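re: that complex we talked abt at group meeting.

here r the seqs, copy pasted straight from the sheet so there may be weird spacing, ignore it
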Amino acid sequence: MTEYAHYGTGAPVSDTKAPQGPVAERWDTRRFEARLVNPANRRKHTVIVVGTGLAGGAAGATLAEQGYHVVQFCYQDSPRRAHSIAAQGGINAAKNYRNDGDSVHRLFYDTVKGGDFRARESNVHRLAQISVEIIDQCVAQGVPFAREYGGLLDTRSFGGVQVSRTFYARGQTGQQLLLGAYQALSRQIAAGTVEMHPRTEMLDLIVVDGTARGIVARDLITGKIDTYFADAVVLASGGYGNVFYLSTNAMNSNATAIWRAHRRGAHFANPCFTQIHPTCIPRTGDHQSKLTLMSESLRNDGRIWVPRAQGDARPANEIPEDERDYYLERIYPAFGNLVPRDIASRAAKNVCDEGRGVGPGGQGVYLDFADAIARMGRKAVEEKYGNLFDMYARITAEDPYETPMRIYPAVHYTMGGLWVDYDLQTTIPGLFAIGEANFSDHGANRLGASALMQGLADGYFVLPSTISDYLARHPHHDAVDAAHPAVAETVAATRERLERLLAVDGDRTADSFHREIGELMWEFCGMARTEEGLRKALDRIPQIREEFWRRIKVPGTGEEFNQSLERANRIVDYLELAELMCLDALHRAESCGGHFREESQTPEGEAARRDEEFGYAAAWEFTATGVAPVLHKEDLVFEYVHPTQRSYA
Amino acid sequence: MKLTLRVWRQQNADAPGTMATYPVDGISEDMSFLEMLDTLNEELTLKGEEPVAFDHDCREGICGACSLVINGDAHGPERTTTCQLHMRSFDDGDTIDVEPWRAAAFPVVKDLVVDRSAFDRIIQSGGYISAPTGAAPEAHSTPVPKPDADFAFEHAECIGCGACVAACPNGSAMLFTSAKINHLNVLPQGAPERETRVLDMVAQMDEEGFGGCTLTGECATACPKGIPLPSIAAMNKEWLRATRKVSR
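got the structure back, here u go
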């Protein structure tokens, strides 16, 4: 066993900055207590925003509208391409347009429960409150949500809840919301209030005298490494699911921005909380470069089943009804096919482990629309899911209107991320993290259609209100001295890292290492985790890291467009992050949400939480590469939603 | 499958480019076109050669990053994005030409990567509704007739990949520009800026050096999202209407 697992425990988190008082009043209280920056002074403040997804795009646009000077970055060629664009199903909001018993409190309750009681109540309640404003904002921007014939907005239900509160734009809700934010951002770019740097990747955080004052970034076209300074830095760089190599993330989504910030002092919370999405297209072979999600909205009308018998190789339509096992409907009669994602994923794994999986390698289950087509007609099914069916047909060369889809779980979202307080500020003053990059709202499992809600809530509404308090209290009118030793050290470290990657000239590609670490993580830190497996992974990761620095081959130079260098540099960070994820999973000897420890389950095989021991968020403090980190616990207090064993039966 | 690839190689924007030939073997028909290129790049890297640069990200047909001209067709033989094109669309032994988007307004960055920032500047010139955060009225205060909402959605599906420009013999961006104008102009929320939007976006489109439309229809044929050709006619109508209204 490596020394890495012998972590120390530091001081618990003493203050989350969440105001006292009734939960429904805390956000008002915080906004009132937050200091404001005089409108005339705002243009003197520069804010760096890294990332242009829902959180970053919304934050950049809003901060600029308020008068701040925003300097924004994305690695893509255009801010419109951030991976929020791929979100399909929808966005939750407690509008109660259906009059079906929904309310802010119910959305709050569902989110805390769905997260398996590992989220902070104050934050979640704020999210539920803001959800209604998001829909108003997006409609005003021209987001073409689905509508009823009367001209009003349509909604649908989604996994883990019993009300119909999900707003959607066919299967392209993320795209439409992102384009809304992108267009708002574009308006500010044209106005000169946002200085946009596309194809520019953040490689490190500049911390001067304990506060975040800028970033080091590389122009991906010229390879030039530059420094950018600001009064505050906002990371909206997304999650770290690509540590698994195969995931539904975009190919270039990466953890570098948050991991470099972690190395500079920002605590990383609950890194082992990753979400495995139940409805993805199964992989076809070793060439597979990524996995494609099929929106969970399909579970509204599709029925999931496998053959009753092991090894039943007949085609789906030759298996009679009484020889099929609609296992979600059987085990969870109340929620049926709409159980939360973690539960649906584990159930699929279980039936496949029993030898009842379908398709190549037995790693798949059927998602069948035959009943829905019979009930609603093919046209209605097309109207609702047409683009998803087309995508499935395109990838698999099978027609889902005729044969059931095959699906299998895949890594999709990371609930963990940089620890933030109620203001979304990390443990480094002046450094904020929003959207998937932070850990704040989803606990141990995120409900469907809640990522878009959180990204936009953080970007449009929360951060713009809380960052003013920081800026008002820390008027950095002194420019950062580019010759400051901290700046020089950060730039030098970045250059040294890239030069070292180029100098190894070994015999293995970046992708081969990425696959290796990904497979290791999927096996030992994926859908089910054990102490034994995690210890194996913790033994193996430092060996892979050592081999990486001996055998990596990066062609070309650093002074040009070099995608191999970009990839290799991201893997450097995955090789460290993976270790922290395994340690976090090892230390949390309970099951909760997406984190399933085989040692901790109920007699029925459901996740068994151990609230007495683990009712906290784990915020890890970095020490050095490969050296044990320090654990800081944030005790979670549940005043409104009392922890119970989650039941969807 | 065994294939011969002829790929455009160009070191940077200023260097001259050339077609280079690479044999590839062991290609599965379940691979996407980009996974086939990944295989080539792994081989090139291990041989100490520079891999082929190409833009790609989501690999599920929605981000609009991938952008290859394959055997002369933008995004290749199927009506989809390059990332959603699978090798089952080709035959064993095929020779496949792979080139970047070709248009004056999309200069080559390296190999198969081009600069599409002109599209961003067209959006910046008016492809938005001015609705500052916090100022929005209640969402249901303005119903939108379903046919209008559907029309808006159909045009909002554009992913900004640029296939329309690459396919057009004139290098015209009218399908792209019209898609955004039609999305926003049909909505009641977009009405206050209806005229300035179309006038400013069309002016920016011209300034970027895109060609005019001669109705060859290649754009709509290449569009992976099915933006319809009449979108351009609708934009022209909006432009004419705006010109008359503004001059009044």
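couple things i noticed - Chain B has two domains: 3-110, 117-247. DSSP finds eight helices and seven strands in chain B.
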